[in-house]
UniProtKB/TrEMBL annotation:
Family matches, as PANTHER family: ABC TRANSPORTER, ATP-BINDING PROTEIN, TRANSPORT ATP-BINDING PROTEIN
Highest taxon of source: Bacteria
InterPro entries: AAA+_ATPase (IPR003593), ABC_transp_ATP-bind (IPR050319), ABC_transporter-like_ATP-bd (IPR003439), ABC_transporter-like_CS (IPR017871), P-loop_NTPase (IPR027417)
Keywords for this protein: ATP-binding, Nucleotide-binding, Transport
Domain ABC transporter: from-to ranges: 6-244
UniProt xrefs under SMART domains: AAA (SM00382)
Protein name: ABC transporter related
GO molecular function, one term: ATP binding
Taxonomic classification: Bacteria, Bacillati, Bacillota, Negativicutes, Selenomonadales
Biological source species: Thermosinus carboxydivorans Nor1
Length: 266
């Protein structure tokens, strides 16, 4: 694999429970992510996807195992940045769009000069395809649509120049039409800016669309980790087979429905 940036080795993570043994959420998780990869992490609700993301982002500590950033060139304070599924909750309501996007620079003190901060804001606003005019940047989150808010969240992550963007179910709370736009934006950021992305989803179709490689998390373990074509066309693990089967059935239902509702041509 070319130029790995992140190495996760033998991670175990558990949470304590009242009067019961600790709940082992992640058990012996190991993988690497290379520069410029878009890797999908797929698994059912409660399988530990967000916990794994929080460990990589440094928001939680593992019980054991290691998370290492490789080949670090330069002093990059935040190696991973996360965006969350709910853009309504993840943006602070009392701050303008400009303040929200600038915040990582203010916290990190990487660009102290105000005019350079403004330049950096405009650069990332352009990358996420939002209007860069003053009236937009002076708005508050409640004045934006769900898709625009998610773009702001992505811009705020990008301004910190992360080595890895962790997108935790970034489309699942958005309208169907907007979901595709956000997925396409992530794909574009990867292709044009070589951004490495870990895309967390419970939706195989979403992972297959955007990711070159997919890891399948089931009952705390990565049961399959392969290029997307292999996962989709020749799944090995029983759980992956079920996911693929369900996704195919959904597609068939959709095409059956469109065939039935096709207007007759006279
Ligand atoms: N801070 C915590 N304390 C106790 N248990 C936790 C904590 N965080 C997560 N868990 C438990 O760990 C398990 C995995 O949760 P996690 O949120 O990582 O799953 P997930 O795959 O992201 O689920 P979803 O798709 O529903 O977001 C769940 O059973 C959850 O209740």
């Amino acid at each position: 694999m070319s130029n790995p940036i992140l190495s996760v080795k033998s991670i175990i993570k558990s949470f304590p429970r009242h009067h019961q043994p600790a709940h082992v959420v992640l058990d012996q998780i190991s993988f690497t992510i290379s520069a410029g990869e878009v890797v999908g992490l797929i698994g059912e609700s409660g399988s530990g996807k967000t916990t794994l993301a929080r460990l990589i982002a440094g928001l939680e500590l593992p019980d054991s195992g290691s998370i290492d950033w490789l080949d670090t060139s330069g002093n990059i304070p935040h190696k991973a940045q996360m965006i969350f599924q709910n853009p309504y909750a993840s943006l602070y309501r009392g701050m303008t769009i400009r303040e929200i996007i600038q915040e990582p620079l203010v916290i990190q003190k990487t660009i102290p000069k105000k005019n350079l901060q403004e330049q950096a804001v405009r650069a990332v606003i352009e990358q996420v395809k939002l209007p860069g005019d003053k009236s937009f940047l002076d708005r508050y989150p409640h004045q934006l649509s769900g898709g625009q808010r998610q773009r702001v969240a992505i811009a705020r992550a990008l301004i910190a120049k992360p080595r890895l963007l962790i997108a935790d179910e970034p489309t699942s709370m958005l309208d169907v039409a907007v979901q595709n736009d956000i997925l396409n934006l992530l794909v574009e950021l990867n292709q044009q800016h070589h951004l490495s992305i870990l895309l967390i989803t419970h939706n195989l179709a979403v992972a297959a669309y955007a990711c070159s490689r997919i890891m399948v998390l089931h009952e705390g373990r990565i049961v399959e980790d392969d290029i997307t074509a292999n996962i989709v066309h020749s799944p090995q693990h029983q759980y992956t087979k079920r996911l693929v089967h369900a996704a195919r059935q959904n597609c068939q239902l959709l095409s059956l429905h469109s065939a039935q509702t096709k207007p007759s041509v006279n």
